[in-house]
Amino acid sequence: MRNRLYPLFALLVITALTLSACGTSAPADNAGGDELSGTISVSGAFALYPMMTVWAEEFTKIHPDVQFDVQGGGAGKGMTDTLAGAVDIGMISRAIKPEEESQGAYWVAVTKDAVLPIISADNPVADQIQAQGISQEIFGKIFVTQEIKTWGEVVGDPSITDEIHVYTRSDSAGAAEQWAKYSGGKAQDDLKGIGINGEPAMVDTIIKDPLGIGFGNLNSVFDLTSGGLITGILVPPIDINANGQVDAGESYKVKADIFNAVSQGTFPEPPARFEYLATKGKPSGLVQAFIEWILTDGQQYLEAAGYVPLTAEQQAESLDKLK
To answer: How far does Cα 157 stand from its chain's mean position?
Structure first.
């Protein structure tokens, strides 16, 4: 009897070890849909908020036992919440600062987008601006040094004395930091103007003020369904070569215009930029599985939502950081 039981026992042990080995070798994200569970809390950049809601929804379809708590509030809030341990992931739309890394911030790039200047469609010199564009130097004199104060000065017509109403962000925002760097400043605080809290409020303010100028993220400026600009605003052509006229690739009237410019690298960086997800320390478990999914299967949802996917090389670089 003993001799008969021993082979059976040995077979059971070998089978159990084999199943165990198969289970530990499979990546967490590739496990069955009911094997990942828990809640992932996220806060931060308005620029990434719309995309994060899409990612959360799609990930939940695969893993229904995973729940998300996603909040905006700006890149500064996202980093503060992350370093304080108040959220699992911070959405950051600017470069990670050395002092944040020293406090434990760990980050990976997940997409690219761009910050764009915006004016009202009712601007009194809209036609001239659409024909001439606005150079980097002029933007600097509007937003940073404030040497240019009228719309007539922008288009070179001293008879036009309409005052420029300059708007910036009052909340700590990656978009503001990127626009400051493009305009000749070093940080968000270098931008002058009336402070507006949040991306939606900025767009709404510009729509309502014919003399206003501000800036917004690609996915807030364009209607992602039609591909056209949000009704009531215009994106001034950026006169990249400063020749006083709008050349090919300098005008952004539909989403495809700016999308192609960013993806092909012809749009200036800044204000084009990477978007990041940050955690306190290297992520693990459920959070790591989610970020790995974003960097692989999750990239397919970016373009429809108004974001530029990472190149294969950029994806690989971010995935390597998670190993």
So the answer is: 37
CATH numeric code, 34-112+274-322: 3.40.190.10
Among the listed residues 304, 167, 155, 293, the one whose alpha carbon sits nearest the alpha carbon of residue 226: 304
pLDDT above 60 (res 4) = no
Displacement of CA 57 from its chain's centroid (Å): 18
Residue that is written with structure tokens 């600009």 in the block: 229
Nearest to 30 by CA among 307, 292, 318, 320: 292
Question: Where do the CATH 3.40.190.10 domains begin and end in the chain?
Answer: 34-112+274-322, 114-272
Tens of pLDDT, residue by residue over 262-310, are: 888 889 999 999 999 999 999 999 999 999 999 999 999 998 888 999 9
What proportion of the chain, given as a percentage, has pLDDT over 70? Answer: 89
Size of the chain, expressed as the number of residues it contains: 323
| Sole residue written with tokens 């606005």 | 134
**Domain with residues 114-272, CATH architecture:** 3-Layer(aba) Sandwich (3.40)
Residues 6+ away with beta carbon under 8 Å from 286: 28, 36, 37, 38, 40, 66
Give, as one character, the DSSP assignment of residue 162.
P
pLDDT band at 178 (very low <50, low <70, confident <90, very high): very high
Place of tokens 């070569």: 241
